[in-house]
Write a structure and sequence with these properties.
metal-binding, 246 residues, five-stranded mixed beta sheet, alpha/beta, binds the ligand CC(C)(COP(=O)(O)O)[C@@H](O)C(=O)NCCC(=O)O, Type III pantothenate kinase, binds adenosine-5'-diphosphate, binds potassium ion, ATPase_NBD, potassium
């Protein structure tokens, strides 16, 4: 089995693939290293013969995680590192090492699908948008707060906005005017996020022409996957990780 890990700022996504089949035998999203070790130990035990990881966390935190995983699984953990080009994509950042590795691998994974001009959206702690032209040239991108950050800022910087997430009973994509604080905040934040994505799609023609693919991934992808032309690919980062660490 191969263990793959995508360490974002909120969750450590993981999945275990069969070595020969490439099929997903197990997967999860852990909020802490302790949870991760418990979840993985409970699932695969000694079957893991390889591990590969991508992280946007600090080097020290990532080093500690890799060491812990090596202790528990008895395998070295291969880590995806920044590169100027990979899988036909050319990194468009002035300093390629500055580009978030999750963004980089999501683009690399997405480009393998149709090798066409594309927009890649990742809705996680932050919402990132990256543009790649039909030649695989990364034009750059955008970073904005994810829904949890938008909500959290209101809760922590105002005196009268305070409710628990359990109070959020409506479906996650209601945008009618809110008639209580919870609805007003949840729907306001949702519209900000959807408006950001829609305006990105509207302006992208200028950079990519009219015919570009739109791929979306990330824990909050359900908030926008009804927007026309958006193709939801939950494992984009893992697809890129397999190219970075074959
Ligand atoms: N188990 C969960 N508990 C709470 N929120 C979750 C969970 N899974 C996904 N989410 C949602 O997904 C978002 C995190 O998505 P993710 O792509 O994992 O972020 P990151 O890559 O930044 O760690 C959160 O903002 C939250 O809205
Ligand atoms: C923008 C990000 C924080 C997104 O991370 P995530 O929301 O997945 O936790 C991450 O890609 C990152 O740390 N990037 C480095 C800065 C940059 O990409 O310019
Ligand atoms: K992410």
């Amino acid at each position: 089995m191969i263990l793959e890990l995508d360490c974002g700022n909120s969750f450590i996504k993981w999945r275990v693939l069969g070595i020969d089949t490439g099929l997903v035998a197990a997967q999860g999203a852990s909020a802490s290293v302790v949870d991760l070790v418990n979840e993985i130990s409970g699932v695969v035990g000694a079957d893991v013969i390889r591990a590969r990881l991508v992280s946007v966390r600090g080097d020290r935190e990532t080093d500690e995680l890799c060491l812990r995983l090596s202790e528990v699984l008895g395998v070295d953990v291969e880590r995806a590192s920044p590169s100027i080009q990979l899988g036909g994509v050319i990194n468009g950042y002035v300093d390629h090492r500055q580009l978030g590795m999750d963004r980089w691998l999501a683009m690399v994974g997405a480009f393998q699908l149709k090798r066409n001009a594309m927009m890649v959206i990742d809705l996680g702690t932050a919402v990132t948008v990256d543009l790649v032209d039909s030649q695989g040239m990364h034009l750059g991108g955008y970073i904005s707060p994810g829904i949890a950050l938008l909500r959290h800022q209101l809760h922590t910087h105002t005196r009268r906005i305070s409710y628990s997430l359990e109070d959020i009973t409506t479906s996650r994509r209601v945008t009618a005017p809110g008639r209580c604080t919870t609805e007003a905040v949840e729907r306001g934040c949702l519209l900000m996020l959807r408006g950001f994505v829609s305006s990105q799609i509207l302006q992208a023609d200028e950079y990519l022409g009219a015919e570009f693919e739109i791929y979306a991934t990330g824990g909050d992808v359900a908030l926008i996957n009804d927007i026309p032309r958006i193709q939801c690919i939950p494992d984009l980062v893992f697809r890129g990780l397999a190219i970075a660490c074959p």
